[in-house]
Amino acid sequence: MLPTIWIFDTYSIMLFIGVISCLYLFSKYFKKIKEDEKYINSIEIIAVISVLLGIVSATLFQSLFDAFKKDSSNSFFSMTFFGGLIGGVLCFLLLYFLYIKKKYPSANFNKILIIAPSCITLAHGFGRIGCFLAGCCYGIETNSIFGVKFPFLDYKVYPTQLFEAAFLFILTVILAFLAFKYNFIYTFVVYLFSYGTFRFFIEFIRGDDRGAYFLSLSPSQWLSIVCIIIAMILLFYFKKRRKLNLNK
Q1: How confident is the model at residue 122 (pLDDT cuts 50, 70, 90)?
Q2: Distance (Å, rounded) from C-alpha 63 to C-alpha 76?
Q3: Cα–Cα nearest to 127, from 88, 91, 98, 71
Q4: DSSP assignments along 167-200, one per residue
Q5: Whole-angstrom Cα distance, residue 24 to residue 28?
Q6: What's the pTM?
Q7: Is the pLDDT higher at 205 or at 241?
Q8: How far apart are CA 240 and CA 173, in angstroms?
């Protein structure tokens, strides 16, 4: 679970760095493929709006998770990443097809699908560093050499925030390479499957409060399963569409 957002706290600073890095990567890709400058600016504007509304969505999702717990003492302004991802993506799609697509009817949405995953993982990676600095989203108790001790805990825990940040940065490099080098249309499939799988398993060593469990799985684990299922559906869709295009 992510912490309350304040203007000058460490998490907010890392989130800001993540968003700026995300927009820079996005801009570099579209300049590489020689996309129209005004189109790039329009996409960046709705991306920022989507991030802001994603933060609101993240707080609402966490509040929903907490509502199922009778002993919940979490702040209304706590957040969960999956809530932000769902809200942010839906907002972006809505703004894109209501505004951008009408203004630029010849625009190819596939290009956004190609670069968007690496932008998400880059911003998310910085966000997880922010989680570590803020002392949230930590792991279970351990005596391992990998353990760290936060001031508010009497024991060492796994720094799951740093584990996830490292994974996300590595995934960013892979996804960006596929996008810039090959214009790989399946980057969103790779992202959803990879992150969904990673998040599902790292949840087993998370030690913070993440909402009520159902069938021994956390809310994030169920959403991870949904991500993997969506990845499989997208893979089938892209392959089928490619086969149809080849047969034309």
Answers
A1: very high
A2: 6
A3: 88
A4: HHHHHHHHHHHHHHHH--TTHHHHHHHHHHHHHH
A5: 6
A6: 0.84
A7: 205
A8: 28
